[in-house]
Amino acid sequence: MLKRFSKKVMRDIDGMPLSILFLIVCGSLLLFAMLYWLAGRYGQGPVSGDRSVSFRDCVYFSVVTFSSLGYGDILPRGISKVFASVEVFFGLALFGIFIAKLSSSKQSYHLAQLYARDVQEKLDNFSIILKDHRTECREALETLKRGEELERALNKIQNDVHITALRIRAYVSFEISNGDFLLETPIGAAARLMKRSTQVVQRVSALACYQVSRHTQRQRGMAKRSIQQFANIGKMVRDNSEDLALQSEAANLIEKCEAAKVELDAIVEHVSAKFHK
């Protein structure tokens, strides 16, 4: 929870316009100036020599404190020392953010474009691979229904799907844990990945549930593990995306995975009971 909150704060700061940041700086200067002036009314405010200072002097003192100049012509006393200490740290942080945004705004734009292009290419490649898996599972099921021999064993087909699911999960998990993956990724590419995953889950489930015989139990176990990986992918996307359409696609994937696992469990129990009679 704390990690997600800190990431959200950093993301909001990074996306904050310079004009808003400038207004925050000005507002902070005036706020601390008001605190110094109010403290002075109780004998706790900044002083210049032996005399208390005016509100205009408090604004000046706030500026030099905020910027860490500290000329020394006005000195804090009492509670205003605490205010000055807080303002120094606050000023250093805001000035650091302000300067960093000025120097890296253009560079950040180009880096974001390159990152988005790279992510889209990888997600599209995964979608193509999933499309091939979907086609292979459909053709394998049609071949079985015709009573013909498969070109590739069912275990090999399911194993390939399982490896792809593991690769996608590892990639998505890594990107989410190390940045704002789903905020900087083109939604279309992520949505296509969710749709392809849903289609593959349905094909894998249909293929695994077709033959009711002992020799396919291992293949069904592999299919179930693949479906679980796709469910995990859907949960990561759903929990970390702020796009409603993408959340809907991820939720649909999770729903199809749960239904497929229930169907597979029923087939496995049926086959086990049949061969143990």
Rg over C-alpha atoms, rounded to the nearest angstrom: 31 Å
Uncertain residue segments? none
Count of strand segments: 2
Query: So what's the overall shape?
Result: rod-shaped
Name the helix and strand elements from N-terminus to C-terminus, one letter apiece. Answer: HHEEHHHHHHH
Helix segment count? 9
Alpha-beta classification: mainly alpha
Largest β sheet strand count, sense and barrel closure: 2 strands, antiparallel
- Widest sheet: strand ordering: 1-2
What's the end-to-end separation, in Å?
51 Å
Our estimate of the beta-strand percent is under 5%
Average pLDDT metric: 84
- What level of helicity do the residues show? over 70%
Index terms:
single chain, 277 residues, mainly alpha, two-stranded antiparallel ribbon
Task: Tell me what you see in this structure.
This protein is mainly α and 277 residues long. The protein has nine helices and two strands. A two-stranded antiparallel sheet has the order 1-2. A hairpin with a 2-residue loop joins β1 and β2 (51-52). The longest helix has 67 residues, at 79-145. The protein is rod-shaped, with a radius of gyration of 31 Å. The protein starts with a helix and ends with a helix. The mean pLDDT is 84.
Quick take:
The protein is mainly alpha-helical and 277 residues long. The chain has nine helices and two strands, in the order ααββααααααα.
